[in-house]
Model the fold of this input.
Amino acid sequence: MTKSVVLAAPRGYCAGVDRAVTTVELALQRFGAPIYVRKQIVHNRHVVEDLEKQGAVFVDELDAVPAGATVVFSAHGVAPSVHADAAARGLKTIDATCPLVTRVHNEAKKFAAQGVDIVLIGHAGHEEVEGTTGEAPDAITLVEKPEDVDALVVRDPSRVTFLTQTTLSVDETADTIARIREKFPLLTDRSRDDICYATQNRQTAVKHIAADADLVIVVGSANSSNSVRLVEVAREAGAKDARRVDNASEIDPAWLVGVERVGVTSGASVPESLVQGVCAFLERHGFPPAVEEVLIEEKTSFGLPRELRDAAR
Done:
């Protein structure tokens, strides 16, 4: 039996995650600990634990932040009410919202101002969805899957558009958009969905390695939407099995019994060290060193939040 391990590329950190993590690290360096962070800065347990060791304090809501302290808003974005609450409490804020999420917020505000009803495709309870909905709560209705579209009721069927969470399954979202277009033929159409380049690229790359894989291992935390989607996409693309792990310690050796070809990838908030840990685990269990298959080269980068640029000056 000839074994092999194929490493998908691109994988791991996207530009928005890199910017958000760097924001917390630089804030700690420039302003000193503690730096408070509302919610997880990105959805990865190991990243959060590492930043906690450096002096970051993660809180669920702003009422846990002392008056006058510095608080960072996570990459997933926040509603305007959160900004207003921070200002009312005299908090110094640094906004690490991914610019691609900010673009969705701006679209929501624009359509709401025009009196257009917005169908937001996303997952209930996800921080990104909560932040976007907060921009125009009276204009936005959330749907999670194509079947949800059938029950939609809007003020004017000729004035409807859609927005999407940035970390969804490309294929499933396309099905939901098609259902929206069918229900609302006069849809105020948009040329694209809002799924970010990194989510799309990682799904394309995992499809490439999954087609003839016995097992695909996706490194990512359970609350990472894009990591969970990668598992689903791998299975749909033909992988005989696909599993999500936070790190190599969660791999069950029983998964490897009878397995020849393993694919490995990671979600957009996962440090590369965790991926390499998985590859090392596989080598210890009789697999050869991983071979990387680069499908797409990513060159996107984002500047730091304004507050840190101002501090640098």
